[in-house]
Amino acid sequence: MDLESILFTQGFGSRRQCRALIAAGRVSVDGAVCIEPDTVFAVDGLMFEVDGAAWHYREHAYLMLHKPPGYECSRDPQHHASVFSLLPAPLATRGVQCVGRLDEDTTGLLLLSDDGKFIHAYTSPKRKVPKTYIATTRHPIDDAQLTALSDGVLLHGESKPIAAAAVLARGERLLELTINEGKYHQVKRMIAAAGNRCEALHRERIGSLALPATLAQGEWRWLDAADLLALGER
Ligand code: URA
User: Tell me, what's the pLDDT at 234?
Assistant: First the structure.
């Protein structure tokens, strides 16, 4: 692939902007500055640098973000900052989107990608991908609430009760809840329907992929092969 197309596909702007970056000597490949946009490189395993920052060529972008509170999962946020402000600009430019949304005040594991099939697979209700949340509740959790959550609660606007795939009291006011759907405010609404109130919510896991303890709030990283395997990808 020619260098201009490499930069273009990886999110470094319009073709004209990519050509300008290259012509200005701001791009190097394998340690050598390349000022010729038409130079062809094999993209498999290709590393390049733009303004000294290293990039790995990726046909698609798959990443995880430890979402902090106070950020909206939208490119066009209404009241808070956007989670996209936590990512390098080329990721937004190449069309990375949130794989499902977390509320502004919810923290934890958020996946992002520019692969439409991947986004669809992990947001489609048909696939029933389990998502595990830790909720801090206002009132102590009792057995009746746990039973209601595991048997199913009727949410406003739904025709059938929705049951948690798994539910566990981790502490007096700490609830671990796994759901297979991704309905609007689902966990908060389920906890309210069970007779309690969600005061804080954190997503800990999607499928078998857990938020790594080493990823601080606001940090992101690429998904590696083991992460994709944990999600059931090959
Ligand atoms: N359920 C909620 O209520 N909020 C979230 O952010 C995610 C799941």
Answer: 58
Class of domain 3-56: alpha beta
Looking at residue 126, the DSSP 8-state letter turns out to be G
Q: Which CATH number fits domain 131-206: 3.20.20.140, 3.30.70.1560, 3.10.20.90, 1.10.4200.10?
A: 3.30.70.1560
- 3-class SS shares of the chain: helix, strand, coil, % to 5: 25, 30, 45
What is this structure's pTM? Answer: 0.94
pLDDT surpassing 70 at residue 78: yes
Checking if the pLDDT of 38 tops 70, the result is: yes
**Of all helices (H) and strands (E), which one includes residue 27?**
strand 27-29
Residue 224: CA atoms inside 13 Å, Cβ hemisphere, count? 3
Q: What is the pLDDT of residues 122-135, one digit of tens each?
A: 988 888 899 999 99
Q: Which residue's alpha carbon is nearest to atom 4 within ligand 1?
A: 185
How many angstroms separate the alpha carbon of residue 184 from the centre of ligand 1? 7
Reply yes or no on whether the pLDDT at 233 is more than 90. no
Residue nearest to atom 7 of ligand 1 (CA): 102
Q: State yes or no: pLDDT of 232 exceeds 90.
A: no
**Catalytic position from the list 2, 103, 105, 115:** 103
Residues with CB under 6 Å of ligand 1 are 102-103, 106, 185-188, 201
Q: How far is the CA of 47 from the centre of ligand 1 (A)?
A: 38
SS3 call for 154: coil
Atom of ligand 1 nearest to the CA of 190: 3
> Is 103 a catalytic site residue?
yes
